[in-house]
Amino acid sequence: MRRVSIPNLRSGDRVSRAVYTRYDAPPLLRAGAHISDGFRQSLERAGVNSVWIDDDLSAGIEPLEALQDENRDDAIAVIRKAFGEVSSAPGGGKLTPKVLDEVREVAERLSGDIRANADRALALNDFANADGYTMKHTLAATALGLGLGLRLFQKYGWLDYRGQRNFGSIDERLSILGVGLLLLDIGKLAVSPELLYKPERLTDDEWQLLRAHPEVGCQLLKDAGGVSPISRAVVRSHHERWDGTGYPEGKRGADIHQFARIAAVADVFDALTSDRPYRAAEAPHFGYSYILSRVGHDFDPEVVDIFRTSVAPHPPGTGVVLSDGSCAVVKHVQPGMVNRPVVRVVLDSSGAKVGPQDVNLAAHPEMTIVSADFDPWARPEPVPLA
Ligand SMILES: [Fe+2]
Ligand SMILES: [Fe+2]
Questions:
Q1: Distance from residue 271's CA to the centre of ligand 1 (Å)
Q2: How many whole angstroms from 267 Cα to the centroid of ligand 2?
């Protein structure tokens, strides 16, 4: 399956995943539907940028899914509920213990999904079904943070309050981390929902206001009661930086709770690689290099070590140029060898169509990925307008 932008859709293309424009309404397009001009227009009208389709070129290419559909949808519902509680009340809302119970329950199920998929590389998931940046960002950062957390706890252990490394009860630790990740930015809703969607860059005053969101979020959780102090620490400290340049407290290094250091990496990576009101998304490989470049400055070296070996800089479906000049599509990424995926070569070095032919870069050390600026899905011929 592959993701195709709306102008590149052809009539007759088969949709491989349902397209939702609203969480609480039936899909605009169901899986298996064939694209018609009418559908293309309604997709455009609904503001959908791209859809997943099935075809020969993309056969065997599957997006890296971390979460089961049902758990993902329930997570969207519960985030919506929690965020709704906070933003709807005049003068700042509150979180109820009931919605927090639901958050905890969903966090446990998401952690279970992440554990079940521990043999996969981590990638940006397609959370297009989640409407709006906040929902997508929350889900993607949660899935990534849990994936990083699991591997970090397995390799380095989770740190207890004495700074000792523990390797037991990882499930329980992941769920606590998950609650913090799901509610990471809840304080933004209380501060000012409008600022979240402002298309222009924020003014200094607005920026100062927004910078209060970690403390505001932490306080919301405290007031509601029953939330682990560690989940609260994740919310409070997710903008702290390893070298002490973050906020709100300017904590540094080991003084920042380990779980918040995980959240910081997941939050920044997803923010960079998502569309924002004021700029288009960066490619995953850009976000990947950025995180690596900030090790020891912004981020905990242990978390970055896990990130480096488990997140796919070129997720399945990405077009890449190889060092011999041929062009390919990433088919499969294995954790531990995230820079050596299996790729499907579609153009040779002269630009002529080939095969297609699958090459495992792990078995070809002489070949490297030199660029990810190849769009295998772009069609040179003009799209006929009917
Ligand atoms: Fe934040
Ligand atoms: Fe964030």
A1: 10
A2: 5
What is the rounded distance in angstroms from the CA atom of residue 189 to the CA atom of residue 196?
Answer: 8
Is 62 inside any structural domain?
no
Q: Which two tokens stand for residue 255?
A: 């003084």
Residue 122 alpha carbon to ligand 1 centre in Å: 21
How confident is the model at residue 331, as a pLDDT?
Answer: 92
Neighbours of ion ligand 2 (CB under 5 A): 185, 267
**Residue 133 above 90 pLDDT?**
no
Structure tokens at 283: 């490619």
Q: Which ligand is nearest to the CA of 188?
A: 1
Q: Any idea which ligand is nearest the CA of 136?
A: 2
Give the lowest-confidence range in 27-31, 137-141, 272-276. 272-276
The ligand minimizing its distance to the Cα of 272 is 2
- Strand pairing of 327-332 and 342-347? antiparallel
Name which of 254, 180, 242 is nearest 214 in CA terms.
180
**What letters, b where the CB count within 10 A reaches 16 and e where it falls short, cover 44-65?**
eeeebebbbbbeeebeebebbe
Instruction: Note the residue count of the chain.
Output: 386
Based on the domain organization, do 188 and 219 belong to the same domain?
A: yes
Number of domains in the chain: 3
Residues 90 and 161 grouped into a single domain: yes
pLDDT tens-place string over residues 276-296: 666 677 888 999 999 999 999
100 Cα: distance to centroid of ligand 2 (angstroms): 19
Cα three-residue angle 324-272-251, rounded to 5 degrees: 125
- As a whole number of angstroms, the distance between CA 380 and CA 386 comes to 18
Tokens standing for 142?
A: 């949660």
Measured in degrees and rounded to the nearest 5, phi and psi for residue 331 equal -105, -45
Q: Which of 164, 156, 333 is nearest to 262 (CA)?
A: 156
| Number of neighbours of residue 170 by Cβ within 10 angstroms | 18
The rounded distance, in Å, linking the Cα atoms of 27 and 181 is 28
Domain that holds residue 46: 2-54
